[in-house]
Amino acid sequence: MAVGSGVAQLQPVALPKFRSSSEATMLGILGIVLFLGLWEVAAQVGWLNPVILSSPSRIAVAFIGQWQSGQFIGDLGVSVAELVIGFALSAVIGVAVGIAMGLNRITEYALDPFVWFLYSTPLVALYPLIVVWLGFGFATVIAITFMLTVIPIAVNTFSGVKSVDPSLICAVRVFGGSNTDVILKAVLPASLPLVLAGFRIGLSRALIGVVLGEMFSSNAGLGFRMTVYAAHLKTADVFVPLVTFVIIGIITTQLAIMLEGRLQSWKT
Amino acid sequence: MAHLEIDHVSLAYPNAREKTSFLALDAIDLGVERGEFVTIVGPSGCGKSSLLMLIAALQQPTGGSVRLNGKPVAKPGPDRALVFQDFALLPWRTVLQNVELGLELRHMAPDERRAIARKYIAMVGLRDFERHFPHQLSGGMRQRVGIARALSVGPEVLLMDEPFGALDAQIRQVMAVELLKIWERDRKTIVFITHDIDEAVFLADRVIVMSASPGRVLEIIPVDLPRPRPLTLRNHPGFVAYRERIWNLLEDEVRSSLNWQASDDAAPMVPAL
Amino acid sequence: MTLSRRLVVGAASVVAFLILWQFVGQREIVRSDLISYPTEVLGTFIHLTATGELGSNAAVTLQEFVEGFVPSIVFGIIFGVVLALVKPLRELLDPLLTAIYTAPTIAFIPIFVVWFGVGTFSKVVIVFISAIFPIMINTRVGVSEIAEPWLRAVRSFGAGQLQVVTKAILPGSMPAIMAGIRLGLGRAIVGLIAAEMYVSITGIGRMIQVYSSAARASEIIVLVVVIAVFGYVCVALLRSVENRMGTWRSDLE
Predict the structure, then answer these.
(1) How many CB contacts within 8 angstroms connect chain A with chain C?
(2) Cβ atoms within 10 Å of B110's Cβ, excluding its own
């Protein structure tokens, strides 16, 4: 690792893109259906023990039970709220920090070691400190989510700002633009692709933060519920929040990718 | 009083490490009259672009002053508009939105600025491309957008920094003719930078020949050729004489800027004609 | 010169932070059991090492990590290559794999513990699962992208040529594979620590959990630094492996 190169050297991490056509989507859905089908058959026929490994039908039953008792909706609400608040906070602060570091050399050099440390460290290790400071509950989960999410957003925003073509900034200045004009009309639009990539990565990290926080330092939410059911060895019930998290993960990733595409429609 | 006065202007970049400074421009004296088309030609790195930056007030001179209508230029403004070599168009904006940029920064009302922008887009011959994005246009078209953008703010002086540098040689010639047609309409004061001697002579009322670094004015040559100037003018004996004169001034400067060190083989590479 | 200016400002910033931290912690401006201070952290580190507590737990964690991570690299690459080369399989499995890839892997910890118990194995599985998906997917993308012209050759020559192609394709898609491994590394460490915290019987994760409940900030900080250093060392190792591979590639070209 080259000394002093710090954050400026970090490549923003990109999600590999899949080409999809309706044919591929169909095959894909077929794949999931096959998987579920095989699982169910295996459970019915006795190849695997459904009490321990569960089966799609049992999971469905468990889901209906949780739904009817209102518990599922309550948990879902808590988790989604934590996700949204944690992410929104990270987005605002992360972008601000990224812009500050991108535009001001001194800020970049001063914050660089800390940002690099937080970027490379598995932040799960810092979580206990947060519990020590904030105890259990809603705020702690948001804090953990914030901590995990703000860094990729800041790093990607910083990369985006640094990659702005200087002659665009020059053009805005030449025609009489103030510093605010330069930021709003040149820097932000030009760095948008990387900022959005940061959002996409941040969103998946935020979800991890929510799961982590709820599993270890909360008494509400889907993650918490999972640990409770697991402690009682109620396998089918454990799958309900688990699958929900997976679905949330898929939805948020797809939303982020769609947003990236929509806001850059001018490129086509 | 000249429209644009460059009065004993010097520009030095301090080199903190070696406690010296790098002199980019050395005591440039130049007066440009209203409505005059002046070209500046010289070897690469001789400070031509820096001089333009000083006129645009993107930088301040270390010595001397730049004055427009007698008043020193303190900061960038619409009275001196710049056309860039790499076009500097905002890729996420349409042609129309790009041309509107200067007026937008002056807080002009949307309807007003759209009307003005459209007028200049039509003037550069791109009326059907208002809604296109830069990446959908060729290099020549993009530069025309850049020119429209610069003209739309109604500048007193148009500063052009090797505007055709990124275009191929044939397009350059046509663009030069078209630029002159546009210029003829309202005769703005233009300062045009190029390293192409033919282009410099073809366009100018006067050609400023600059030396290699540190940039100094070697000679100011009035171009006494009639307007309008057709493409075939380049073969005209008067034109050829100007070209030769400037090249004679520049050849040594160009060679010195190349830092071409003599090889051990003493025989000359090109026999003298 | 820019490089030294960056170093100076960066170092000054870190030093200023350490001094401030020491001051605030030692003088109890903020309770020192909440934030500790540099010298106390250092002392705790020495103590933990001397008693062997740090060493024995770290050894357990490291073992679980290696047992999970190494197979994930091997199988991740193999599956990735297979997915890249066998189109129908890829299209069938892609959405399923993407779903699991985008899912927060740590959410699987409770269910794995139910299935595999509280011993080492469940943690090895977590490491394996966390790391294999990024590796597999990045390998697949890397191989498909460089191998398009070669894939046509493969199909025309039949499976017998596969070995030759794999030996040539793999080095070419190394950058993508390494990116996948780096991603997998990060996720694996997060998964492992979280799993150890959840089960809380052995390992660094357990130590974190214990000291978290006891509100011992200085021990926690020591553990944070240990994990950070571990992560840093792994990345540095990967980088040097990548550089070594680079010379292979130029031979190939």
Answers:
(1) 179
(2) 10
CA distance A108 to A110: 6
Looking at residue C251, its pLDDT comes to: 41
Three-class HEC string of chain A: CCCCCHHHHCCCCCCCCCCCCHHHHHHHHHHHHHHHHHHHHHHHHCCCCHHHHCCHHHHHHHHHHHHHCCHHHHHHHHHHHHHHHHHHHHHHHHHHHHHHHHHCHHHHHHHHHHHHHHHHCCHHHCHHHHHHHHCCCHHHHHHHHHHHHHHHHHHHHHHHHHCCCHHHHHHHHHCCCCHHHHHHHHHHHHHHHHHHHHHHHHHHHHHHHHHHHHHHHCCCCHHHHHHHHHHCCCHHHHHHHHHHHHHHHHHHHHHHHHHHHHHCHHHC
Residues of chain A under the 70 pLDDT cut: 1-25, 268
The minimal CB distance from A128 to the residues C9, C113, C220 is found for C220
Query: Positive or negative CA dihedral for B60, B64, B69, B72?
Result: positive
- C170 Cβ under 8 Å from any chain A Cβ: no
**Amino acid, single-letter form, for residue A144:** I
Which comes out higher in pLDDT, residue A147 or C173? Answer: A147
Considering only CB atoms, which residues of chain A are within 8 Å of chain B?
A: 165, 167-168, 170-177, 181, 185-186, 189-190, 192, 264, 266-267
**Measured distance CA(B58)–CA(B195) in Å, rounded:** 22
B56/A174 touch (CB, cutoff 8 Å), yes or no? yes
Name the residue with tokens 């933990």.
C48
Question: pLDDT of A98-150, one tens digit each?
Answer: 999 988 888 888 888 888 888 877 777 788 888 888 888 888 899 999 999 99
CB-based contact C10 A110, cutoff 8 Å: yes
Residue pair A142/A89 in contact (Cβ under 8 Å)? The answer is yes
- Any idea which of A207-211, C161-165, C191-195 has the lowest mean pLDDT? C161-165
Contact by Cβ (8 Å): A250, C99: yes
Q: Per the CB < 8 Å rule, is B88 touching A177?
A: no
What chain A residue is nearest to B55 in terms of C-alpha separation?
A174
pLDDT digit string, tens, across residues B112-152: 999 999 999 999 999 999 999 999 999 999 999 999 999 99
Q: Residue A62 to residues A55, A73, B121, B146, C246: CA-CA distances in angstroms?
A: 11, 14, 66, 65, 52
Q: How far apart are CA C124 and CA C118, in angstroms?
A: 11
* Nearest-angstrom CA–CA distance, A197 and A153: 8
On whether any CB of chain A is under 8 Å from the CB of B81, the answer is yes
Total number of residues shown for chain B: 273
Is the Cβ pair A165, B88 closer than 8 Å? yes
